[in-house]
Amino acid sequence: MRELPVRQPAFPSPAGTAAHPPHHLAHPPQGGGSRPSGRERPAGQRQVVGSVSLISLGCSRTLVDSELYLGKLRQVGYQIVQDVEGSDAVIINTCSFIQDAVKESVDTILQAVEMKKQGKVRAVFVAGCLVQRFKDDVIKELPEVDGFLGVDGFGEVEDVVGKALAGTRTTALHRQPLLPHQGQPEREALTPSHYAYLKVSEGCLKGCSFCIIPKIKGPLSSRSIEDLVEEARRLVETRGVKELIVVGQDTSDYGVDRYGAPRIADALTGLAKINGLRWIRLLYFHPRGLTPEVVAVLRDEPRVCKYLDMAIEHADDDVLRRMNRLVTQASLRGTVATLRREIPDIALRTSVIVGFPGETDAAFDNLLAFLEETQFERLGAFQYSPEEGAAAFRAPDQVPPGVRKVRFDRLMAVQQRIAAAVNSRWLGRTTEVIIDEPDAEDPAVFHGRTRADCPEVDGGVYVHADRPLAPGDVVPVTITDTYEYDLVGRVVLAG
Ligand code: SF4
Q: Whose CA is closest to atom 8 on ligand 1?
């Protein structure tokens, strides 16, 4: 097991680390819905036993876990506060899928430990993927931390925090299957109240050779469709959620473990019956899992956005084989062609890795050519990160970091051109836009997104309006200007 970089003397002291704001807690929920800080204790609620803050790092799936941790602690009497400073306990829900994420998690933990030394917080807890991946090492390497929770430790968070605040360092690492909604506490909103993530499953059955996630999250564990619909209904009723973003490690396999076959289309159909929901968005879909049922629900269900996040990771057959992606360039081309034929105005988001072991110049050019041909509306790119424990870690033909960087920059330049061309096609069109927030400077401008923009990862729309708009409002907007990643438009006045 490689040493965690924690103890390398070069490691900057908390003061030196980037002032990483508490993730998400830095963006208090807009408009209605539940606010974490200082709310009055309704009659009959338990005595406040302490105050808890939380820093949620990494992905939307971890964010859902963070909301459950806070929901559980509020349920048992803790006050949920925004600021780490002055709180009794801070929980850092970590990420560790690549080295950069490990470094960010460790930076943040050291920052919190430093605050504890300065008496600004009483106890520090570390949860999530860093703990699940490095287990005993992280516990040994961070003696100043008061408690550790593996992934989905909702059942133990009360115990771990309570014992540590009483002076006993506690660790809860054993895995539990995903709790049905009935067993789950009310999630504490860490997103603006008009959108929320819905985690349909945990774990993954695939075995991509660059990926450590199945080792961290285990095999696929899907929740029941009834459970998902019940949770989504609660999110609409209690938070006023208008947009639901469906996530998992691999949503294309949702249900295979529980129903013996993929049931994501049925889950989306069930969710689309919930009144009050305007938009449903599907993320983390493996291209191998496209079925006629999925195409039909994306095409025919008005509340389901014609948007699909479908990572291809690469497009060269030799590299796809080395990645164990279970697809070929031809099958990817067929999948994209089916989606574009059946749903002409679909927005496809994808992600790719450059510099994977064995990626030759020709293989890289093959990827670029495929991106030019396919014109993905949205794209995220990563430089390959060798991860101990992933099959590719000891693969031959590692690509030097300098070459990875050059390829990354070339690819991003190509995609910037594609993004500009894609966005230019919106000029003059009128489309639905959901409002996220007012502009900080101009009261007549609001930030929003079309159905083709996922929160936090895609671009947005600068909306000019002659009347105040609230977060969650869905308004018709005519696009008046376009940029690579953003659009500008004006609200269409009612006739
Ligand atoms: S589908 Fe592949 S990349 Fe995604 S979580 Fe599973 S193994 Fe990792």
A: 211
Q: Which atom of ligand 1 is nearest to the CA of 205?
A: 6
Q: Is the CB of 30 under 6 A from ligand 1?
A: no
Atom number of ligand 1 nearest to Cα 250: 1
| Nearest in space to 411 (alpha carbons), one of 364, 448, 377 | 364
Please give the average per-residue pLDDT across 481-486, as a whole number.
96
Any ligand 1 atom below 6 A from CB of 66:
no
Task: Tell me the per-residue pLDDT of 306-340, one tens digit each, with 9 for 90 and over.
Answer: 999 999 999 999 999 999 999 999 999 999 999 99
Residue 205 CA to ligand 1 center (angstroms) comes to 8
Q: What is the pLDDT of residues 118-171, one digit of tens each?
A: 999 999 999 999 999 998 899 999 999 999 998 877 788 999 999 888 888 888
**Is the shortest distance between the CB of 368 and ligand 1 below 6 Å?**
no
CA pair distance 304, 279, nearest whole angstrom: 6
pTM for the whole structure: 0.90
Give me the helix-helix angle, 60-75 and 154-165, nearest 10°: 60
pLDDT digits (tens, 9 = 90+) for 418-452: 999 999 999 999 999 999 999 999 999 999 999 99
Average pLDDT in the chain: 89
Which protein residue's CA is at the shortest distance from atom 2 of ligand 1?
208
Determine if ligand 1 sits within 6 Å of the CB of residue 286: yes
C-beta separation of 256 from 220 below 8 A? yes
- What domains can you pick out in the chain, each with its CATH number? 24-33+46-172 (3.40.50.12160), 183-424 (3.80.30.20), 430-491 (2.40.50.140)
**Distance separating alpha carbons of residues 6 and 280, to the nearest angstrom:** 40
The terminus-to-terminus CA distance of the chain in angstroms comes to 66
pLDDT bracket for residue 495 (50, 70, 90): low
Nearest atom within ligand 1 for CA of residue 249: 5
Longest dimension (CA), the chain: 68
The answer to whether the CB of 249 is under 6 A from ligand 1 is yes
